[in-house]
From TrEMBL:
Gene3D superfamilies: Aspartate Aminotransferase, domain 1, Type I PLP-dependent aspartate aminotransferase-like (Major domain). Its main location: cytoplasm. This is Serine hydroxymethyltransferase. The record marks H243 as: Plays an important role in substrate specificity. One of its GO terms (biological process) is tetrahydrofolate interconversion. It comes from Kitasatospora atroaurantiaca. It is an enzyme of class 2 (transferase). It holds the Pfam family SHMT. Belongs to the SHMT family. Its cofactor is pyridoxal 5'-phosphate. The gene is glyA. Catalyzes the reversible interconversion of serine and glycine with tetrahydrofolate (THF) serving as the one-carbon carrier. This reaction serves as the major source of one-carbon groups required for the biosynthesis of purines, thymidylate, methionine, and other important biomolecules. Also exhibits THF-independent aldolase activity toward beta-hydroxyamino acids, producing glycine and aldehydes, via a retro-aldol mechanism. Residues 22-398 form the Serine hydroxymethyltransferase-like domain. The keyword Repressor does not apply.
């Protein structure tokens, strides 16, 4: 099956019907899942981290490796009967190394956050100073939130974006690095819509003798498809996500230099995890193979072109896309010029079937509970076949919702679009 078929098929999977065994054993949950499938098929998923998992990946996820215990690594397992699990993991590792031109890959982290935890464990000691994008400016909570292990165990210093253009201020990064002498610098975040200058971060890290960690979960798929500059040649460790744009199983992945391979592996198992979820490892192998096909590039192109046209339409409607646009699948926009908060924008849009996220902006004057922005991603709708033209219309619909308020015709048009692209 080609990936084009896989994309068709992944949309088929959204018209989900509970298998007989599940309906028999647990009608309550079966109904709940059917209703969720229905909800998804009637709305457009514009949440930045969501996508449609391909049917080949889904098949691997529910395949026989789901029952295999395989603590350790290929050739070094603590359990019997691991030869085929080893082969599956080696496939995933080899494909990851090839796709990202990495010396070493660890495909066992259960999420990007647990991959971050392992990275810290590999490189740092509790109390070390780490320089990362501040949470208010788009850093992930694993980059220093007090509610997360990172903020409790390490001493985080935050850099940010410039107020006038919302771009990362590399002069500030350098200044803070020289002042605080961090043990590691983290480049990357969750809502930054522009390409990151990994080479410049590497230079700064070298100037202060710090490790460079690339927090690249949001853009892993773009890097895989050559649509965003790769951090791999510059970062000591790259933290990746296999869901999001890569369309694989929900999970994390670490790419690193040969020199750090052993430390990274030990930091994942046994330091921060037990046995790997071998069905997820198998699903990652499939996703990594699909990401190497030309069809995957076509889908990424639609995601990026779509995000650009979405940003343009939002701007024409009176919102203010941060950085003036996007290089990626992400759009972060200030909706305060339209007289609504981020919370209100999310509420109106989701009532009309447009699923997007409220987002606190850098220098946001509104309290975090209200926030002034929205964040959108085009991965899922690009997988359904939408591109620049459709996302221009989606941007116009959002603009109408935010400036004019509720209009039943908008929700109707969203459902029409969702149905029209359900079969692509
Ligand atoms: C999505 C994301 C995460 C969190 O991923 P999980 O798998 O939900 O833990 C962390 N960092 C960045 C940059 C992300 O984009």
């Amino acid at each position: 099956m080609s990936v084009t078929d896989a994309v068709h098929g992944s949309v088929e999977a959204r018209r989900w019907e509970a298998p007989e065994a599940l309906r028999q054993a647990d009608p309550e949950l079966a109904d709940l899942l059917a209703a969720e499938a229905e909800r998804r098929s009637e709305s457009l998923q514009l949440l930045a981290g969501e996508n449609l998992t391909s049917p080949a990946v889904l098949a691997a996820l529910s395949g026989p490796l789901i029952d295999k215990y395989a603590e350790g690594y290929p050739g070094r397992r603590h359990h019997a009967g691991c030869a085929l699990a080893d082969a599956a993991e080696l496939l995933a590792i080899d494909r990851a190394k090839r796709l990202f031109a990495a010396d070493h890959a660890n495909v066992q982290p259960r999420s990007a956050t647990s991959a971050m935890l392992a990275t810290y464990a590999a490189l740092l000691k509790p109390g070390d100073v780490v320089l990362a994008m501040s949470l208010e400016h788009g850093g992930h909570l694993s980059c220093g939130s007090r509610a997360n292990f990172s903020g409790r165990w390490f001493d985080f210093i935050g850099y940010g974006v410039r107020e006038q253009d919302s771009l990362i201020d590399l002069d500030q990064v350098r200044e803070l690095a020289k002042l605080h002498r961090p043990k590691a610098i983290i480049a990357g975040g969750i809502s930054y819509p522009r390409h990151i200058d990994w080479e410049a971060f590497r230079e700064i890290a070298d100037e202060v003798d710090a490790y460079l960690i690339a927090s690249a979960a949001q853009i892993t798929g773009l890097v895989a498809g050559g649509m965003a500059p790769s951090p791999v040649p510059y970062a000591d460790v790259t933290v990746a996500a296999t869901h999001k744009l890569l369309r694989g199983p929900r999970g994390g992945m670490l790419l690193c230099t040969a020199e750090l391979a052993e430390r990274v592996d030990r930091a994942v198992f046994p330091f921060s995890q037990g046995g790997a979820a071998m069905n997820e490892v198998a699903g990652k192998a499939v996703a990594l193979a699909e990401a190497a096909t030309p069809e995957f590039g076509v889908y990424l192109r639609r995601a990026v072109d779509g995000a650009r046209s979405l940003a343009g339409a939002l701007e024409r409607a009176g919102a203010r896309p941060l950085t003036g646009g996007t290089d990626t699948h992400l759009v972060t926009a200030d909706v305060s010029p339209l007289g609504v908060t981020g919370v209100e924008a999310e509420r109106r849009c989701s009532a009309a079937g447009l699923m997007l996220g409220k987002c606190a902006l850098p220098y946001d004057p509104a309290p975090a509970s209200e926030s002034s922005g929205i964040r959108l991603g085009t991965g899922a709708v690009a997988s359904q076949g939408m591109g620049a033209e459709e996302l221009r219309e989606v941007g116009e619909l959002i603009g109408r919702l935010l400036s004019g308020g509720v209009d039943a015709r908008i929700g109707e048009r969203v459902r029409e679009l969702a149905r029209a692209f359900a079969g692509r």
